[in-house]
Amino acid sequence: MKKTAITALGLILALGSAISCTSQPAAKGTDAPAKADTVSATDAPSTLNIRYIDGDSLAAKYNLAKDFNEAYIRSLSRLEQARQTKANEINRFGNQIQQRMQSNGYLSEATYNADVQKLQKMQADAENYIANLSRSAENELAQQQLQLHDSIENYILIYNSTRGYDAILLKQAGLYFNPALDITDEIVEGLNARYNKVAEKN
Questions:
Q1: Is the pLDDT of residue 176 over 80?
Q2: 3-state DSSP assignment of residue 176
Q3: Which terminus of the chain is more solvent-facing, meaning fewer CB atoms within 10 Å of its CB: N or C?
Q4: Exposure of 166 by Cβ count < 10 A (0-12 exposed, 13-18 middle, 19+ buried)?
């Protein structure tokens, strides 16, 4: 598993190739965005009012994404430490069996077989333990990506309710965008302001 969990690719997979943002302004007294209007191809304006977000910059600057990335790296570090600890324990016991054999330390075949079975059980238990830790780390990442998706999507809908853009795209989904259409910094500023306010309450 790569150690960079929250990347532009992750954002693209989480948000989809584009975020359609044709919506009406939110109702007064609420932060919830209004439902998006459905516009047919024949009703669409000849010139679309489009903006874009750079997923790399968003992943690098959004505090929630950075915190999730650090948490995931810590999970990977714990997983690697556990894997190394288990491997060392198994190697030590395997070496003990080997040394005991070479020094004729086993008085019976039954005693030797018991140690071999113990070694095999240690290996199986270690594999199961590491597999469970790995699944836990992947589940944690999936939950983080879902929360990140919800946070970004919700804020963009609120943001666009006062701008009225026809679409807000991810830069990685296209070949070229006029840099003047980049609203990444505005989105990051808004996301961080909202995230920091939540963090201060905890």
A1: yes
A2: coil
A3: C
A4: middle
Tell me the one-letter amino acid at 114. A
- Tell the residue number behind the tokens 């701008």, with chain if given: 163
Angle CA(143)–CA(5)–CA(134) in degrees, nearest 5? 65
Question: What is the per-residue pLDDT across 37-83, written as a single tens digit (0 to 9) for each?
Answer: 555 545 555 688 999 999 999 999 999 999 999 999 999 999 999 99
**Which pair of structure tokens corresponds to residue 197?**
């306010």
Give the residue from 75, 61, 58 showing the smallest Cα distance to 3.
75
Beta bridge partners of 138: none
* Residue range 2-26, pLDDT digits in tens: 444 555 445 544 454 445 444 444 4
Residues 131, 134, 136: CA angle, nearest 5 degrees: 110
Strand partners, 20: 167
- Amino acid residing at 178: N
For 117, counting Cβ atoms within 10 Å of its Cβ (0-12 exposed, 13-18 middle, 19+ buried), the class is exposed
12: tokens are 């693209």
C-alpha–C-alpha distance, residues 64 and 151, integer Å: 9
**Partners of 23 in the β-ladder:** 36
Beta bridge partners of 168: 19, 51
